[in-house]
């Protein structure tokens, strides 16, 4: 049996079993980030032998993670070690998998992503209109697409007659879907030059990348002073505006590419306070009318 450090094995495992074309690029980059995060917390990973690690070592690592990372990131750390050790055992790099029964710390915090308020969204759109690639941000605000879905959109996925796009590449199976287009989103697509098979291209006439989108939201942050702007916040904001406009929840879930309605509402639909006041005002008006009707009825007697 060969003797390797945890770090050496993780690098080999990533390169052989996770790196495209074996898995998606997003998965590969996510796992790379997670491994770096684990090493920051526990530098011993670079020197401890693969077969010398027990469950206690890895559980302590997860417990430490709760002070710095969100619950979703800690779950990914657990997944990486579980998968990596499963393959290591299969390849006789170590004798057993110490990551099979790891538990997520109860005090680990959930990562919170809030939507843009309507005022913030207007500022972002105004700034985006002045940016050479700002239409990309507006398109995500108008459709709720994930950044990876926007990147993979091809002209063959666009039906101009039906005003819809077909998302063929997505994070999940439920993400494969048809998304009807609002008028602004359709105008954005119709205005794109046909440089290649992909709809959205950068200033160098090549398909948009994650880096291009990241640099765009960084520019919009600077232009608006709104620090929370990210690709995922566009999606979050789309769902929140949809709920505020009383869209059918089941339809919204389908448009977002989710498996069920409950997930959509619990994850994305955090209506802003001003909207909640508006809704309560509706109740106030109904109560006022009932009260007025009751007083008029009393006068008859």
Keywords:
13 helices, single chain, DNA polymerase, domain 1, 301 residues, mainly alpha, 3% strand, globular, hpI Integrase, Chain A, 3-stranded antiparallel β-sheet
Range of helix content: 55-70%
Are there runs of 5+ residues with pLDDT below 50, and where? Answer: none
User: What class do helices, strands and sheet pairing give?
Assistant: mainly alpha
| Total number of beta strands | 3
- Across the major sheet, the strand order is 1-2-3
CATH third-tier fold name of the largest domain: hpI Integrase, Chain A
The global form is globular
Task: Specify the biggest β-sheet.
Answer: 3 strands, antiparallel
CATH class term of the largest domain: Mainly Alpha
CATH superfamily caption of the largest domain: Intergrase catalytic core
Number of domains: 3
Total of helices: 13
Structural Rg: 25 Å
Provide the residue-averaged pLDDT. Answer: 88
| Euclidean distance between termini CA atoms | 97 Å
**Beta-strand fraction estimate:** under 5%
CATH architecture of the largest domain: Orthogonal Bundle
Order of helices and strands: HHHHHHHEEEHHHHHH
Give a quick precis of the structure.
Helices cover 55% and strands 3% of the residues. The chain is mostly helical and 301 residues long. The protein has 3 domains: 6-90, Tyrosine recombinase, N-terminal domain (DNA polymerase, domain 1), CATH 1.10.150; 118-270, Intergrase catalytic core (hpI Integrase, Chain A, Orthogonal Bundle), CATH 1.10.443.10; 273-301.
């Amino acid at each position: 049996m060969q003797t390797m450090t945890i770090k050496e094995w993780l690098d080999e495992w990533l390169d052989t079993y996770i790196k495209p074309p074996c898995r998606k690029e997003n998965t590969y980059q996510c796992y790379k980030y997670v491994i770096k995060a684990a090493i920051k917390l526990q530098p011993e990973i670079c020197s401890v032998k693969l077969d010398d690690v027990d469950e206690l070592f890895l559980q302590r690592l997860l417990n430490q993670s709760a002070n710095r990372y969100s619950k979703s990131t800690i779950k990914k750390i657990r997944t990486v070690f579980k998968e990596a050790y499963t393959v290591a055992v299969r390849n006789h790099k170590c004798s057993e998998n110490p990551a099979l029964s790891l538990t997520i710390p109860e005090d680990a915090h959930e990562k919170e992503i809030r939507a843009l308020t309507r005022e913030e969204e207007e500022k972002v759109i105004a700034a985006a209109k002045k940016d050479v690639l700002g239409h990309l941000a507006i398109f995500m605000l108008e459709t709720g697409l994930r950044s990876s879905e926007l990147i993979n959109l091809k002209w063959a996925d666009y039906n101009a007659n039906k005003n819809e796009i077909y998302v063929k590449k997505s994070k999940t199976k439920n993400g494969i879907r048809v998304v009807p287009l609002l008028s602004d989103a359709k105008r954005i697509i119709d205005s794109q030059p046909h440089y290649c098979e992909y709809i959205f291209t950068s200033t160098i006439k090549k398909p948009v990348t994650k880096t291009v989108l990241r640099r765009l939201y960084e520019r919009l942050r600077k232009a608006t002073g709104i620090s929370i702007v990210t690709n995922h916040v566009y999606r979050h904001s789309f769902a929140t505006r949809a709920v505020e406009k009383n869209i059918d929840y089941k339809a919204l879930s389908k448009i977002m590419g989710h498996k069920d309605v409950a997930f959509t509402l619990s994850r994305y639909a955090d209506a802003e306070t001003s909207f909640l006041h508006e809704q309560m005002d509706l109740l106030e008006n109904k109560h006022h009318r009932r009260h007025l009707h009751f007083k008029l009825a009393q006068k008859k007697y």
